[in-house]
Design goal:
The chain is built from ten helices and seven strands. By secondary structure, the chain is of the alpha/beta class. The chain has one domain: 3-Layer(aba) Sandwich (Rossmann fold). Helix 3 crosses helix 9.
Length: 309
Amino acid sequence: MRSSIVLYFLATTLTIMSKAVAKPDPNFHIYLAFGQSNMEGQGTVESQDRVEDKRFKLISTADDCMGREVGEWYPALPPIVNCYGYLGPVDYFGRTLTKKLPEEITVGVVPVAIAGCDIQLFEEENYKSYTVPDWMEGRIESYGGNPFRRLVNVAKKAQEAGVIKGILLHQGETNTGQLDWPNRVKAVYEKLLKELNLKAEDVPLLAGEVVRTEMEGMCGAHNEVIQMLPGVIPTSYVISVEGLENQGDNLHFSSASYRILGERYAEKMLELLKKDEDIEDADIKSEDEVEVDVSDNDVAAEEDSDNEN
């Protein structure tokens, strides 16, 4: 009897110890995403956007949003970033990656975005002096009053489960034309890397352009400033929005444009993963293979529909 008790406690202790030293899953690829309203996502959510992808997850960062608990993982369904947003680039960034990456890889996102915010709001040494309009107060408070710190804290939690592979940025409309913006972004990026014990060569920064002037974008002039980023941050890449329409307000992209923008972020990340040999070229599905998968799903859906009828 005594030996049985000893064995029980020994087994329990070993189980607890094994959980304590469990390493993050290298096949769980995690991406941070931050910015303002276009990262938050302002596109109308349609039926195709509500289909769950079981390999695409979000870790909640915002308080009081759809019953999600901060620091817990959920299916990545819109609104992904917070309950002030709708459909955005993060949605189809993740969906595109899971379509093209090997099936054993899961993608997770850690998103923080505040509509209308200046880059100052992510500068922890300066955010307290930021003049906040009344309508923005609730959005900031949903991140504990300090969006940068909330991003870091939840990202650390995410690192317990997986490995951070990149950082997505869509911000700048509020800083349109400010030539110091690239250096300020650099400071935020480098502080994120330091806080999370990451190396720039392992974690690139992908920054999206704003709606272009030729597409009637009111902040299109800022794209010239965004294009300066790679000269300031060698591990940064600019994501083109060429040909992407706005939704009629000359500021935010349409839902169709958000889907394409998300795909463009993903295509750049896939290119970098292949370049760094994190993923073998042969492991990434071609467009033809993705189309086959989609058609197979459509057939299965039709069969399910027939069975229900």
